[in-house]
Design brief:
Elements lengths: L1 H14 L14 H8 L2 H9 L17 H16 L15 H7 L6 H17 L4 H4 L2
Helix pairs in contact: 1-3, 2-3, 2-5, 3-6, 5-6
């Protein structure tokens, strides 16, 4: 029932014209949260309503320093391979909702990861995500 309530809330916010790309203090958007919580139906609803799947959070902001960026990428790869059984908090330079969901795959679902990856690829190619392109 919580998922149905969440979907109804999302639909209401969309109808009211809410900013679907609004960011928290960390730069996360509703798509970032849908990604790590495995809410594929909500992610799909947000994307088809116009949410930008390429918005980057602030934690993963690309730095000008090549060495720092290289370190962050290697750390991301290392942490992404860690076992789900470890209790250590994951650090991530994940930027987009897809990268965020991928990094925290123990909280996400394969379906959510696929939704966000597909949406990101379509957005990068076409500048938006239409229902027709999404379901092709």
């Amino acid at each position: 029932d919580d998922d149905n309530d969440n979907m109804e809330t999302v639909k209401m916010l969309i109808e009211m014209g809410a900013n679907l790309d609004a960011q928290t203090d960390d730069g996360d958007t509703p798509l970032h949260y849908a990604g790590i919580k495995g809410l594929d139906q909500i992610a799909t609803e947000l994307v088809l309503a116009g949410a930008n799947p390429c918005v980057q959070n602030y934690e993963g902001f690309i730095k000008d320093d090549k060495d720092v960026r290289q370190y962050e990428e290697s750390r991301f790869d290392h942490m992404n391979r860690k076992s789900n059984n470890e209790t250590e908090d994951k650090w991530s330079p994940a930027k987009t909702p897809y990268e965020f969901a991928l990094c925290f795959e123990e909280f996400s679902t394969t379906q959510t990861i696929l939704v966000l990856r597909t949406a990101e690829e379509i957005y990068k190619k076409h500048g938006n995500v239409s229902r027709k392109l999404f379901y092709q």
